[in-house]
Amino acid sequence: MDLLPMHQFKTSDGAQLEYFDTGEGQPIIFIAGYRASAQTWLPQVRHYQSKYRVIGLERRFNGNTISPLHNKTIFRQGQDLHDLITYLNLIQPIVVGHSMGGSTVMAYLALFGDTNLKAFVNVDQTPKMVNAQDWHAGMYDLNMANMGTYFDNPLASPFYKTPTPELLQIMKTVAAQTDDSKYTLQLTKPLLLSHAWADWRGILENVTIPTLFMAADHSPFWPSEHATLAANLMKNGSAVILKDVGHGMEYEDPQQFEAALDEFLNSVAKWK
C-alpha cells in the first residue's frame, strides 16, 4: 500500500528526523508512541487534512531516523518537537501525542511552556508511570523497587481488539521498509527508563491551554482513571474514556477515536 511521503529535517543536535506534512489551515501535529511509526496516523490524516494542516513527527529511534545514540532521554524528544515546530515556523499548533508521544509533548511543555501551543491531546499516557503512595494510576506493577528490571522483557501487546485491516497493512508495509535492528529494546531501554521516571504532574499544573486526556477502558498498561486525575490537575483539562479499546485505541477503533477528538477540536476552535 502507499504510505505518506516523508520529508527530512535536522535537529539542533544533528539528528536527521522525518515528518509528513499535508493539508492547509490550523496545524495539528500527531506523534506516535514507542516503536510506532508516524505512518500509523494515516487514517487521521485522511480524516483531518481537508480542514487542518496535518503533520506527523517520526520520533528519533523510530523508522528511518538517523540519531546520535547517546541522546536517549524523553527531554531530547521534547526538544525534537520544538525543533520541528521551529523548522516549519508553526504558530500555535495543536499537538496530539499517543503514549510516549504524549510524554514527548509533556517534555516539550517542561522545556518551553505552552505559549506557542494551541491545545494538547494526550492519548492514553499517564503523567506518572511509577506508582507511589500518592499515585496509583501508574503502569501496572511498576514501582521504585523493580524500576531497573521492569523493561528487560518485551512489553505486553497494547491492543484489546485486533487493529483494523488497514492498520495491520500499514504496520506490515512499514516493517518491510524499516531496519528494526537499529533500535532494539536493549538499545532503547535508556529512553524507556527516562520516559518512565518522569513525573509530569507539576508541569501540568502550570499548563493553561485546553488539554484533553484520552484513556482506554481496557489499556493493559495503566488504569483509565489516570485521565481524570491528570485533567483535574489543570486549569483547562478534560478527560474522556473510550470504550472497548486498548492502549492502541486509534488502531482498534479509529471512528470512536476521531469522534472524541473531533468534539475536543471543535471546542478548541471556540476557545479564547
From TrEMBL:
GO-annotated molecular function: hydrolase activity; peroxidase activity
Keyword Iron-sulfur: no
Gene3D superfamilies for the chain: alpha/beta hydrolase (3.40.50.1820)
Keyword Oxidoreductase: yes
Record's keyword terms, sorted: Hydrolase, Oxidoreductase, Peroxidase
Membrane-spanning ranges: none
Family matches, as InterPro entries: AB_hydrolase_1, AB_hydrolase_fold, AB_hydrolase_sf
Every AB hydrolase-1 domain range: 27-248
Gene Ontology, cellular component aspect: membrane
Protein name according to UniProt: Halo peroxidase
Gene name tied to this protein: hpo
